[in-house]
Each structure stands twice: as C-alpha cells, then as structure tokens.
Specification:
The complex is a heterodimer of chains A (469) and B (282). Chain A has 469 residues and is an alpha/beta fold. Chain A folds into 3 domains: 127 residues, Orthogonal Bundle (Fumarate Reductase Iron-sulfur Protein, Chain B, domain 2); 167 residues, 3-Layer(bba) Sandwich (FAD/NAD(P)-binding domain), CATH 3.50.50; 156 residues, FAD/NAD(P)-binding domain (3-Layer(bba) Sandwich). Chain A is 36% helix and 17% strand. Chain A is built from 20 helices and 15 strands. In chain A, helix 3 crosses helix 5. Chain B folds into 2 domains: 88 residues, Translation factors (Elongation Factor Tu (Ef-tu), domain 3, Beta Barrel), CATH 2.40.30; 159 residues, Nucleotide-binding domain of ferredoxin-NADP reductase (FNR) module (Rossmann fold, 3-Layer(aba) Sandwich), CATH 3.40.50.80. Chain B has 9 helices and 17 strands. Chain B has 282 residues and is an alpha/beta fold. In chain B, the strands form 4 sheets. Chain B has a 7-stranded mixed β-sheet, with helices on both faces. Classes of the chains: A alpha/beta (469), B alpha/beta (282). Chains A and B meet through strand 5 and helix 14 of A and helix 1, helix 2, strand 8, helix 8 and helix 9 of B. The structure holds flavin-adenine dinucleotide, iron/sulfur cluster (SF4) and FE2/S2 (inorganic) cluster.
C-alpha cells in the first residue's frame, strides 16, 4: 500500500447537510464493501494492538478488521459479538475518538483506522445476511429479573439467556431500548432497523419483556424475590433531568432535553397531528449544553423547522463532551455554536412565552477536578439572545424511585447505586450497572457492565453463599 | 392490552370506564394515578384512579373529553382494549386521622376528590364533602360521595341544583359555621377554584392539600414536563406529587404551563374527529 493511502482515512459517505436537516432519516450511509475493504486494509495488524486496550469491552479489533479485509464481514460481526453483542449500535454511537481510535498507532499520523465505521459495516452485513439465532440454551431452571431495557439491561439479559436462565426484563415505557429509543434520535440510530432488531434477537433467545411496568410502583424488587426470582439486575439508567435553576425556567417553551427528545422520538411528535403528542416548533431555538444530548436536541430542533439553532455552552470548544462526529454534523447542518456563555435568566412575554435568554460571558480559568479549565465569569459582561424555544441539556441524574422503594440499597451522595467490581450492591441478590451506577455515561460502558454483571449473577446463583458472606 | 369492562357517560362529555389492570388494581392507594396511551397514535395522559377492585383486577377511571387522546380513549367500547396503562404512579395521599376533613370537588375534580375522601373516611375521619358543577348535569359522583360523607353540600353555578354558587362559597359558610374548626381541606378541580380555596383557607389558617394536573409525558420523573413551583422550588408532580400543600403552590405558573399546547391540541382533536384513528386489534 502506498504511504499516502495508509495515512488517509476512508471518508464515510453521508447525506448532504441541506437535505438531511429537513428529515429524520439517518445521516451516514455506511461503507460499501469496497470502501470497507480499503479502510480495513490500512490496519497494521499491530501485535500489541493498543486499540484493544482502548476499548472498554476489549473487542479484538485487529481480528475483526482482518476478517473484513479478507472478505468475510459476517464472520467479522460474529467475532465482535464475542465481546460486544451490540455492534450495530456501538459502531454508530461510541465515542471512538476518545477510546479505540484515540490510541490506534495511526492516530499519531492523524488518521486512525475508522474502527467505528468498520464495526457498523460488519453489523450491517450480518443483518443483511440474516442474523443466526444461536441454538436455545438448555433451561437451567433459574429465574432472573432485569430492571430497565437500556443497553445495560439488554446486554445482561442476553448474556443470561444464553446460559439458560429464565430472564424477564421489566420496562417502564411502552417500547424497550431505554435511551436508545427515547433519547438518541432516529437520524443517528434507526429505531426499527437497529434497536428493534436487537430486541427481537433477545426475544428469540427466550428473553421475556414486560413493558409498562414501573419497578418500585407496579411491582417492587422485594416482590420479585417473593415470586421466585433468584437475582435482580438493576439497569434503570440516569433518567432524571437537571435544570438550570434560573429565573424564567418555567416559562412556556422551556424543555428539558429528555422531554424534547422523548416527545419527538418516542411519541413521534415530528409527525403531529397524525401522532397526537404536540411539540413546540421554535423558529429560534437555544440549546444549553455541549454533550451528545445537546447536539441531538439542536439537530432535532432544525428538523422540526427551526430557522436558527444556537448552542450555548459555558466552556470552550475543546471541552465539548460530545462525540466529534456529532459536533461536526451539527456545524455542517448550521447549528451556531456560542461558547463560554452561561445562562443567567430567561425572559418571557405577558403570556409567559419565552422571548430571550440572557447569558453571562465566561473565560477559562484554572483546571478543575475533572482536569478541564474552569469557566469563570467576566465581570459585567452579558449577552442576550432572542429565542422562542429553549432546550436544557445540562445532564441527568439517576431516578430515585428504585433506591426509595428498595430497603438496604447503598446509595452515593449523587444518587447512584453503589456496587463493587462484581457489580454487587449492598443487598444480597441485587446487582446493578450502567448509568444508575456511573451517572450519565456511555452506551458501551453500560453494555460492559451488563455483561460482567451477568457473569457475577451466574456465579452467585450457582453458589449464593460464596458471593455474599 | 387492557380490556374495557364497562363504559358510561355520567355527565356531558364525562365518561366512566372500568378497565382491567390487575397489577395496578392490587397495588393502588388513594391519590395515585395511571398514565394511559389508548391507541398507537395517542398521547400518554395521566388519569386519577377513582377506584379499584383487586379481586376482579379492575380500576375505574373518569375521563373528561377535552382533546384528541381523551376522545380516542372514550371511544373505546366495552370488550375492546386500551393499549397501555401504567401505574400506579405518584405518591399516595398522606392519610391519617386528622379529625374533621372537608373534601372539595369541582367538576370532574370530584373524581379525584372521591378516592381521597374515601381513604380519609376509612382512617376514621369525619368527612364533609362539597361538590359542585356548572349546572345540575355537571355534578358527578353525588351518590358515591353521599354514601361516605358525614355531610354533603352540592353547589351549582347557575342554581339548577343544590345551592346556587361556587364550592368556595359553600366552604366559606362551613368555616363560619364551625368558627374554623376544620382540620384539613382537600380541594381538587379547575385551577381558579383551587386557587380560590387556597386563598380562603390561608386566611383562616386551615391546612389545605390540592391535587395538581400538569401536562405529563412519562409519569416517572424522567421528562420534567410536569414541573410545578411549590414553595419556590421545582417539583415534579408525577413523583413528588400530585398532591401538594396548597398554600405553597404557584397556581399562576401552573395555569400558564397548562396553556402551552392550546392551539395544537385543537388541531390534533380536529384530526381525530375527521377520522377516528384505527382501533387497537382485539
Ligand atoms: C440524547 C442522548 C444521547 C446520547 N448519545 C450517546 C452517544 O452518542 N454515545 C454513547 O455512548 N452514549 C450516549 N448517551 C448515553 C447513553 O445513552 C447512556 O449512557 C446509556 O443508554 C445508559 O444505559 P443504561 O442501560 O444504563 O440506561 P438507559 O438507557 O437509560 O435505560 C434505562 C431504562 O430503564 C427504564 N427504567 C428506569 N427506571 C425504571 C423502573 N423503576 N422500572 C422499570 N424500568 C425503569 C427506563 O425507562 C429506561 O428504558 C446518550 C444519552 C442521551 C440521553
Ligand atoms: S492500533 Fe490501529 S492499526 Fe493497530 S491494530 Fe488497532 S486499529 Fe489496526
Ligand atoms: S411526567 Fe415526566 S417527569 Fe413527570
């Protein structure tokens, strides 16, 4: 391979910004076989493979890339699934640039292998060929309950079903998938083609889904044990939105990102009035925050017909926590980034509708605990943006319902459930993982937690006394 | 899927439905609600559980037709199904023996006041009821309230039935008559009514609880759409409520937020009327 080719990433074909910003269809189109093989051929097949160490679930990256290079993408997908059961999802949403791709040896040359794109390619090829359902495991007669059907719960359930467990997932919403269905928009993660397909696969493995059931309200964890469940995995996520706590925040036209995205994605408000759930369609929209949730909200606002979308973030470009691809896509689609501003007040008209947001201008000071430079206010410097809709995307906390209704669960001061390295909580037989343990984090970490917890559950059910003395 | 066992119109555009929901029926306590999505295209809407029968696994809902989703819900006939029913949600009413409790229901608010009054009666309180409506046709659950209340006053705005006037007028008379010897007032109804009751009882220092009905989506504390200002703090009505100390509630803010989708609701309802959406498969 010529040197230039080795140091150039194969670009992902994408729909043009002017076109895609008007609909909810997926933005990247996926590699063709030709492009995938070209990209896979760039991989150096490093012996020490730093990329593997960069992956939270240690996928054998050179291994699957080699299979793509050699023309067997379906085998590549199966190879990935040895460690990551959801490659179609992770290929699309993982922050590769801070994980595997960050440490790829070619990153030094500015062109790490497009590992995420290749992962997604392998998964698509497998789906097109028809995913084989593994032969049903011999039932082992043990019952396990999983709370929440986000990536943590889905992975844990899948892993247990493969080992012959009788697994039931309890989900509060009417559709399984957690953030994958109510949060991350269709244009980034197709719901039917990708998420529903994973759920179907679990059903084929024998996992039962009980929807519309709020654990702690409809049934408590203790009642699940009374019904003969031997272990419970809690993967209830970090679903409680935080607000800014500034004047005017309860005006008409101020949404939490959760509400904005749930109305749009889960309740299909973008197809109003055929679907009855309404959503305010702002013409000038401000989104507060700088993570994936903020990018998703900003790009959703464009697709709901906004002329202008302002992204207001209190730190600088460098600290934006969102995936690079999303920042890039948002910019291309016309989202205006206003950095180093922190909202102080929301203004409203006589009817109580939002008219503007006033922000304090900031500058970067000393690094804080997270190592990022702390934004500090510039004395007397304010800026006001005229807007008619505001979406607050500054983070989520764990929902307190399960901690409140389950005695003996040790909870941290941030409201997360405390676990040890085996994902055991302070209560015998109860395990937890994903955002409910880490606070809002990533799909892949939630998945990894679900998988490891499943192994601990297996160990526990086989020898209960050993794991809880 | 939740089978509708019975359905009857108890006042103009007010429908009582008995629905199969065994898990909810066995768990539910007074003051709690369910979130219902009648059809695939519908919104998720909160509805108070008016009554429940654990033995038959049914709950009673009372629905006022105000928009597309309530129209869709109430068009579902006995033997047909409601798609999703989630619950019981919200904190149950704080019930203990307070002494003399006045339970006030305005319009369909009586559907919410009734289960709370019932819980209070069962806890040994002396329960007085005040229920009202615009006119005779809009007074609901009179027999049910009469059978459990130690005393019941019915009011109508136009005087077509009971005492002419608002429920607040009746309450004022009860306060005067007892020289304020009322231990707790529970008020549920239109916002202006709850606000007026709250102002009145504040003057007399009577502890008052209201049940709020903001717009909700999930009903589990996930979206914040149901947020209300109580005592200067943001509370999520679906998990922190729906009942709050009336004297701390910012009613004007709630009234404002309830207007958020006014125009869109009419548009959706229009769409709904011109072709009532596909029924759930039975
Ligand atoms: C808009 C948005 C965009 C994101 N983008 C990315 C991204 O690009 N890349 C990335 O890696 N991460 C992203 N994240 C973060 C990622 O989605 C989460 O870290 C991940 O989904 C956490 O998985 P989980 O299984 O722990 O919880 P969740 O996905 O939150 O699932 C929890 C589930 O439990 C259910 N539940 C909660 N309480 C109960 C109860 N009491 N009873 C029954 N069910 C209950 C909830 O309804 C939910 O379905 C994003 C998050 C959001 C909100
Ligand atoms: S570090 Fe990069 S080049 Fe090396 S094996 Fe991993 S993906 Fe291939
Ligand atoms: S209805 Fe969503 S938080 Fe209350």
């Amino acid at each position: 391979m010529a040197k230039q080719e080795r140091f150039k990433r194969t670009p992902m074909p994408e729909r043009a910004p002017e076109e895609r910003r008007n609909d909810f269809m997926e933005v990247p189109l996926g590699y063709s076989t030709e492009l995938a093989v070209a990209e896979a051929s760039r991989c150096l097949q490093c012996k020490n493979s730093p990329c593997v160490a960069g992956c939270p679930v240690e996928i054998d990256i050179p291994g699957f890339i080699k299979l793509i290079r050699d023309g067997d993408p379906v085998a590549a997908a199966r190879h990935i699934k040895l460690t990551n059961t959801l490659p179609a999802i992770c290929g699309r949403v993982c922050p590769q640039e801070t994980q595997c791709e960050a440490v790829c040896v070619l990153a030094k040359k500015g062109a790490p292998i497009a590992i995420g794109n290749l992962e997604r390619f392998a998964a698509s090829m497998e789906a097109a060929a028809g995913v084989e359902t593994p032969p049903a495991a011999e039932p082992n007669g043990h019952k396990v309950a999983v709370v929440g059907s986000g990536p943590a719960g889905l992975t844990c359930a899948g892993e247990l079903a493969r080992r012959g467990y009788d697994v039931t997932i309890y989900e509060a919403f009417h559709v399984p998938g957690g953030v994958l269905v109510y949060g991350i928009p269709e244009f980034r993660l197709p719901k039917d083609e990708v998420v529903a397909a994973e759920v179907d696969f679990l059903r084929k493995l024998g996992v039962r889904f009980v929807l519309n059931t709020v654990i702690g309200r409809t049934v408590t964890i203790d009642e699940l044990f009374d019904r003969g469940v031997e272990a419970v995995f809690v993967g209830s996520g970090a679903g409680a939105p935080m607000f800014l706590d500034i004047p005017g925040e309860n005006a008409i036209g101020v949404y939490s990102a959760n509400e904005y995205l749930t109305r749009t994605n889960l309740m299909k408000a973008y197809r109003f009035p055929k679907f009855r759930t309404p959503i305010a369609r702002g013409k000038r929209v401000a989104v507060i925050g700088g993570g994936n949730v903020a990018m998703d909200s900003a790009r959703t606002a464009l697709r709901l017909g906004a002329d202008t979308v302002l992204l207001l973030y209190r730190r600088s470009e460098k600290e934006l926590p969102a995936r690079l691809a999303e920042i890039h896509h948002a910019r291309e689609e016309g989202v205006e980034f206003h950095l180093l501003v922190s909202p102080t007040r929301i203004l409203e008209d006589a009817e109580g509708r939002v008219t503007a947001i006033e922000c304090q201008k900031m500058e970067l000071g000393e690094p804080d605990d997270s190592g990022r430079r702390r934004p500090v206010p510039i004395d007397g410097a304010f800026e006001t943006f005229d807007v008619d809709l505001i979406v607050v995307a500054i983070g989520n906390r764990p929902n307190p319902l399960i901690p409140q209704t389950t005695d003996g669960l040790k909870i941290s001061r941030w409201g997360t459930i405390e676990v040890d390295d085996k994902f055991r909580t302070s209560r015998q037989g109860i395990f937890a993982g994903g955002d409910i343990v880490t606070g809002a984090a990533t799909v892949i970490e939630a998945m990894g937690a679900g998988r490891t917890a499943a192994r601990s559950i297996d160990e526990y059910v086989n020898d209960p006394e050993h794991l809880w003395k | 899927m939740h089978n509708v066992v019975s359905r009857d119109e108890i006042a103009p555009s007010v429908v009582r439905m008995v629905v199969e929901a065994p898990a909810v029926a066995s768990k539910r306590l007074p003051g709690q609600f369910v979130v219902v999505r009648p059809l695939e295209v519908s919104e998720r809407i909160p509805l108070t559980i008016v009554d429940s029968e654990p033995a038959s696994g049914t709950i009673t809902l009372i629905v006022q037709v105000v928009g597309a989703t309530t129209r869709e819900l109430t068009s579902i006939q006995p033997g047909e199904n409601i798609l999703d029913v989630v619950g019981p949600l919200g904190r149950p009413t704080h019930i203990e023996k307070f002494g003399r409790v006045v339970s006030i229901g305005g319009g369909v608010g009586t559907a919410v006041a009734f289960p709370i009054a019932k819980g209070m009666k069962e806890a040994g309180n002396e329960v007085w009821g005040v229920i009202g409506g615009r006119s005779r046709d809009f007074v609901i659950l009179e027999d049910e309230m009469r059978s459990l209340c130690d005393r019941l006053v019915v009011t109508t705005d136009d005087g077509s039935y009971g005492v002419k006037g608002f429920v607040t007028d009746a309450l004022r008379r009860l306060i005067e008559e007892t020289s304020g010897a009322i231990d707790l007032v529970l008020a549920v109804g239109p916002l202006p009514m709850m606000k007026a009751v709250s102002a009145l009882t504040r003057e007399h220092g009577i502890h008052t609880v209201v049940s709020l009905n903001p717009i909700m989506v999930d009903g589990t504390g996930m979206c914040g759409g149901c947020r209300v200002e109580v005592g200067g703090e943001i509370k999520f009505a679906c998990v922190d409520g729906p009942e709050f100390d009336a004297h701390l509630v910012d009613f004007d803010n709630l009234a404002k937020r309830l207007r958020a989708y006014h125009d869109m609701e009419q548009q959706a309802d229009h769409q709904c009327k011109i072709g009532l959406a596909t029924r759930n498969k039975q």
